[in-house]
Write a structure and sequence with these properties.
The chain is of the alpha/beta class and 207 residues long. It has a single domain, classed as Rossmann fold (3-Layer(aba) Sandwich). Helix content is 26%, strand content 22%. It has five helices and eight strands; from the N terminus they run αααβββαββαβββ. The strands form two sheets. The protein has a six-stranded mixed beta sheet, sandwiched between helices. A two-stranded antiparallel sheet has the order 1-2. Helix 1 crosses helix 2. The protein is globular. About 11% of the residues have low confidence.
């Protein structure tokens, strides 16, 4: 889809799609640091830091096969991203949100993928991606990020972390989802940001 949009040329497609397909800005959020904090709190394993695990090495790889030595382990979280594609997001805000997906993918490690859900009042699309231009952008209706968080909770395997990219004009679950940490990436360009639930970690995304 992104390659098709690029081929249409400037002025032949809506500006927000052109921005998404060929002119995405660099991510503004240090997602590597954010994810490390979330995973450290959620699982006691920090992404980007190493932890020691005691496992018996292969006899072919060790000169002392009967000795168990500590080895380094670097855990990586399973991440899902919910992108708000409601009518209030279509335009600059949606392009900003999509730009952050590459930052999230880079934070999860080389050759990693994450599942991205496009959500307005319902889950409109769900796809595993390696790059932001693979995201299926559908929506334009009302807003209910509760549906996106519910959709993420049904994925297999269940995500450790769900990142919701939205302008915040949405209802939220009254209680946190079981077994998942939630990060709200709030696209905020003007005025006071909308209220977000206290059980979620809030990150402001702005120029």
């Amino acid at each position: 889809m992104a390659n098709q949009i690029r081929s249409f040329g400037i002025g032949s497609v809506p500006g927000h799609l052109a921005r998404w397909a060929g002119d995405l800005t660099d991510p503004k959020v240090d997602w590597r640091q954010e994810l490390a904090t979330l995973v450290r709190h959620a699982t006691a394993d920090a992404m980007g830091a190493s932890d020691y695990r005691y496992r018996r090495p292969s006899r072919r790889q060790s000169a002392f096969p009967d000795i168990v030595l500590p080895s380094l382990r670097q855990p990586v979280p399973n991440v899902a991203v919910v992108v708000d594609t409601s009518g209030s997001m279509w335009g600059y805000d949606l392009g900003t949100a999509l730009a952050e997906i590459n930052g999230i993918l880079n934070a999860t490690g080389t050759n990693r993928q994450c599942t991205v859900l496009s959500v307005d009042a319902h889950v409109q699309a769900c796809r595993k991606v390696f790059h932001a231009d693979q995201v299926v952008v559908k929506g334009g209706g009302g807003t209910d990020m509760r549906r996106g968080i519910e959709g993420a909770s049904t994925l297999t395997p269940r995500p450790d972390v769900v990142i919701v990219l939205t302008d915040g004009y949405t209802p939220w679950p009254s209680t946190p989802p079981h077994g998942m940490r939630v990060v709200i990436g709030l696209v905020c360009r003007h005025g006071n940001p909308p209220e977000t639930p206290s059980w979620a970690r809030l990150v402001i995304i702005q120029d």
